[in-house]
Design brief:
Structural class: alpha/beta
Oligomer: single chain
Shape: globular
CATH topology: Rossmann fold
Strand order of the largest sheet: 2-1-5-6-8-7
Strand content: 15-25%
Order of helices and strands: HEHEEHEEHEHHEE
Number of helices: 6
Length: 204
């Protein structure tokens, strides 16, 4: 069972914003790129009537997610799916994950540490799986109309690109275009600790 320090620090601030977008009624949330599993296993107990579907493409992450689920004895979190978000939904969907099945698609700290194709796949997935009025909820560092602040984020972006030229902090303007192509529209952007943002898109 893996523990990431950043996830421990940001899981409650994210939950404070996320709470505003999860329906009070019974709902279904798909998390793309669940990583260690700390986020979804922190959120799920707060919404016992919501079913949570974690996922990741990495086998070690899938084991960590399952270990967190078992450690907390969570009955409303499904076993993690192995998902490569750059692949068509039909290649990884489950009986629970079908077009129009999701009230919310959650994605934390993925699009800047993956190729652009992952962001494209994320928005395509959200556009297909979300119910009308459902939300794509993203968290991470973002540029805003070409502007990246503060200097620590600029340095972080340079570090990411030095590790992999396909990585880098994404511009909200570019994500907004992906949203429009997939019948989504940005509804809100919330400043968060450590120079991150929660960015929320709504399915039309």
């Amino acid at each position: 069972m893996s523990i990431a320090g950043a996830a421990e620090r940001n899981k409650q601030p994210i939950l404070d914003v996320l709470t505003k977008y999860i329906p009070l009624k019974s709902s279904f949330v798909l998390e793309i790129a669940s990583g260690t599993g700390q986020h979804i296993c922190h959120f799920a107990p707060k919404f016992p009537d919501t079913r949570w579907q974690p996922s990741d493409m990495d086998s070690a992450s899938l084991k960590s997610i399952q270990a967190h689920i078992e450690n907390k004895d969570l009955k409303n979190v499904l076993p993690p799916l192995q998902v490569d978000i750059t692949k068509p939904i039909a290649q990884w969907a489950s009986p629970d994950v079908t077009p129009g099945s999701c009230d919310l698609v959650l994605n934390v700290n993925m699009v800047h540490i993956s190729p652009w194709e992952a962001a494209v796949g994320l928005f395509k997935t959200a556009g297909t799986l979300l119910k009308p009025g459902g939300y794509l909820f993203m968290y991470g560092p973002f540029k805003v109309n070409g502007i990246l602040v503060p200097d620590s984020n600029v340095q972080f972006d340079q570090h990411l690109r030095s590790r992999d030229s396909r990585w880098g902090i994404r511009d909200i303007a570019d994500l907004d275009k992906l949203a429009e192509e997939n019948n989504l529209k940005r509804e809100n952007m919330v400043d968060m600790p450590a120079n991150n943002k929660c960015t929320i898109y709504k399915k039309n």
